[in-house]
Amino acid sequence: MIASHLVVPADITVSWADIAGLDAVIQELRESVVLPIQHKDLFKHSKLWQAPKGVLLHGPPGCGKTLIAKATAKEAGMRFINLDVAILTDKWYGESQKLTSAVFSLASRIEPCIIFIDEIDSFLRSRNMNDHEATAMMKTQFMMLWDGLSTNSNSTVIVMGATNRPQDLDKAIVRRMPAQFHISLPSETQRKDILKLILQSEEVSQDVDLNRLSKLTNGFSGSDLREMCRNASVYRMRQLITSRDPSAAALDRNNVRITMDDLLGSHL
Ligand code: ATP
């Protein structure tokens, strides 16, 4: 069950090169996580500069939190356990307790490793009176296992959480994540960088104006921009397929190129 969510670095398909507009976050993660993990032997001599045992990525949906987590693992040569919270919380207490221990002991065996928890707030939100006793105990157990990583200065296991609702997180959890990054909706300049990256592998017509597109896409996330480009590509291909002579049309490179109109389509 856990193994199906475990990815080795060679199989992680994203790297920093697949992320646009987030250079500052990447630079900080490179310094705080990637370097200490890559140069573990060197960094063991420093008590002051150690990889954090917890990293929190927060911000609106579709802005690249999961992408960043995976790329960090790839760049640092870490394994990546994508912990599906539903699997933990769906189990009855005894089972979820065993599973939680299994995740941490697996991570320690295969380190360096990132345990990634998407929507970490749904699992480790503020404790309250309505919490089921089993849920409260599971959170406590999770925190104890996590603390075990901190007491072992040689450990290269990092818990990385992503959330759209950082305010809902238990304060005790936030304290365990000293490295925190806000990944906001992209600015106009960032949108231009993202569009450039997404379209670089496509055939694009000369009339495509990235400056205008980035102005028109205020409020779009990276994921929205990707979807917009995908729809434009689907539209272009459909036009070719339904044209009277598809083979001739496909041979003409100009017809394959995504145009500004395709991109503007129904979105803008
Ligand atoms: P959620 O909160 O919904 O889980 P998320 O913040 O984790 O969202 P991702 O799943 O990382 O977002 O992003 C979704 C997709 O959007 C990515 O796979 C990628 O195609 C695209 N994307 C988002 N942000 C960027 C970016 N900065 N650069 C390049 N692509 C991006």
Strand tally is 6
Tally the helices: what do you get? 14
User: Assembly state here?
Assistant: single chain
Largest sheet: 6 strands, mixed
Q: Percent of residues in beta strands?
A: 5-15%
How far the N terminus sits from the C terminus, by CA atoms, comes to: 43 Å
Order of strands in the sheet with most strands: 1-3-4-5-2-6
Report the principal-axis shape.
elongated
- As residue ranges, the low-confidence spans are none
Helical content, roughly? 40-55%
**Cα-based radius of gyration, to the nearest Å:** 22 Å
In terms of structural class, how would the helical and strand content be classed? alpha/beta
What order do the helices and strands follow? Answer: EHHEHEHHEHHEHEHHHHHH
How much is the average pLDDT? 86
Task: Describe this structure as you would to a colleague.
The structure is a single chain. The protein is built from 14 helices and six strands. By secondary structure, the chain is of the alpha/beta class. Helix 1 packs parallel to helix 3 and helix 9 packs parallel to helix 11. The mean pLDDT is 86. The radius of gyration is 22 Å and the shape is elongated. The site of adenosine-5'-triphosphate has 19 residues, from helix 3, helix 9 and helix 11.
